[in-house]
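stage 2 :: seqdesign
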C-alpha cells in the first residue's frame, strides 16, 4: 500500500516557508553547535545528534502530516531558520515554535513574518486554534516575539530540568 502526501509551500513578502531539504543541514548544524541553542537544550556537539535533530524536522511531516517549515529568504535563497507545528512524542501537546539560525538574520522581523504565516496555515489547513508555544523562562527574545504575535502567558511548567512558560496564541479571528 502506498501513501500520498501533499506538502505545502508558503510565500510571504520576504520568505518562502518550505519543507527541510538536505542542503539546509549545514546552516542547521552550525546553529545547533552554537551558543544560540542556549534556551533549547544547549549546543549539540555530536554531528550524529545534529543530523538526528535535523531528520526529526522532516520526520514530523511524514509521521504527523505537518511540521516545522524552513524559513528561506526570497532574495538570497538562504535558509535562516524555521518554525511551525511541532509535536514530538515527548511533548505534552502540539506546539508552534520557531528558531532563527543565523545571528545576521535576527532582529529583522523574519521570525514574526514566518511564524505568522505558519500559524495562519495551521489554522486554515487543520482548523487548529489557541496553539501553545513553550518558551524557556529566560528567553526574553522569544517571549517578546510570542507577545508580539498576540500570545499570552498561561502558566509556567517544569519538565525534568527545564522550566518554561506556556504561551497561548489567541483564537483565530
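stage 2 :: out
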Amino acid at each position: 500500500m502506498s501513501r500520498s502526501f501533499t506538502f505545502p509551500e508558503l510565500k510571504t513578502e520576504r520568505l518562502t516557508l518550505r519543507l527541510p531539504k538536505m542542503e539546509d543541514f549545514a546552516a542547521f548544524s552550525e546553529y545547533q553547535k552554537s551558543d544560540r541553542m542556549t534556551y533549547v537544550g544547549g549546543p549539540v556537539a555530536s554531528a550524529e545528534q545534529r543530523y538526528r535533530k535535523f531528520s526529526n524536522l522532516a520526520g514530523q511531516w511524514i509521521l504527523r502530516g505537518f511540521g516545522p517549515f524552513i524559513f528561506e529568504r526570497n532574495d538570497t535563497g538562504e535558509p535562516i531558520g524555521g518554525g511551525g507545528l511541532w509535536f514530538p512524542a515527548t511533548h505534552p501537546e502540539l506546539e508552534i515554535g520557531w528558531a532563527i539560525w543565523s545571528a545576521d538574520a535576527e532582529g529583522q522581523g523574519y521570525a514574526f513574518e514566518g511564524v505568522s504565516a505558519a500559524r495562519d496555515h495551521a489554522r486554515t489547513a487543520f482548523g487548529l486554534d489557541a496553539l501553545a508555544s513553550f518558551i524557556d523562562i529566560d528567553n526574553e527574545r522569544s517571549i517578546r516575539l510570542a507577545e508580539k504575535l498576540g500570545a499570552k502567558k498561561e502558566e509556567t511548567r517544569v519538565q525534568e530540568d527545564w522550566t518554561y512558560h506556556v504561551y497561548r496564541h489567541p483564537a483565530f479571528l
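stage 3 :: structure notes
- The two ends are 40 Å apart (CA to CA).
- The chain has four helices and eight strands.
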